[in-house]
Amino acid sequence: MSNHSSEDIVKVENLTKIFGSGKKAVKAVDNVTFSIKKGEIVSLVGQSGSGKTTVTRLILRLLKETKGKIIFEGQDITGLTGKEKKLYWKKVQAIFQDPYASFNIFSPVKKVLIDAFKLFDNSFTKQEKMAKVYEALESVNLRPEEVADKYPFELSGGQRQRIMIARAHLIKPKLLLADEPTSMIDANLRSGILELLLGLRDTEGTTIMFVTHDLGLAYYVSDRLFIMHEGKIVERGDADKVITQPEHPYTKQLMMDVPKLSEEWILK
Predict the structure, then answer these.
(1) CB pairs under 8 A, 24+ apart, for 232-240?
(2) How many domains does the chain have?
(3) What is the pTM of this model?
(4) pLDDT tens across 4-16, in order?
(5) Is residue 2 situated within a structural domain?
(6) DSSP reduced 3-state for 230
(7) Domain hosting residue 233, numbered range
(8) 78 class by beta-carbon count within 10 Å (0-12 exposed, 13-18 middle, 19+ buried)
């Protein structure tokens, strides 16, 4: 789909996460290895409980791995300190399934977005910040004059998710982890969110890991697909190949849940 770099931005090596111990131990992520190239969109696809969200939280450093390495821009980030994590989060951001949980419910939209400047560049004047906030809102097809002064509870799920993408537009992370960003949005609005993610990659060069249970959506947005099942990646490859020539029984099962893909999608 895109002319991405041949250079890896992130490499996950033999990543394992075990919750609990003894007989109650659960291996949520089981010796997972993969890499993502700069400017690429890769999807991690699997049903609930497959381990995909745990991988996301490990890359974000919201969880500590049991073993394995995560290499970001050539550096093993598994041992980052608190201060180092803040620097890391300037480069790696996330959009979650429920955007409402990502908001300060007592802050209007414009403050949520202005606060993003603290992460990457606080040198702008107040007027410059507002101009950039309005530009970011317009970039996700929202009218600033209609949403800037509203609070999260006054917005629809689709609007809230667009605002989180606008926030990413402001911060300009090198890697964006999008964990089920369309699952709480009406089906007729999902393609719009996917187009915004594609636009973020095409205009800013943002690398994106799209995490979803929906193989059809993953195919639409991705260069490559990683299929996760029971904590392992059971199939991987170019999106076209995985969709048209699935090999693993689990991938074939996921295909059964996907409405017939249109010729337009197959020829993307």
Answers:
(1) 232/30, 232/31, 232/32, 232/51, 233/32, 233/33, 233/34, 236/34, 239/1, 239/43, 240/266
(2) 1
(3) 0.88
(4) 667 999 999 999 9
(5) no
(6) coil
(7) 8-266
(8) middle
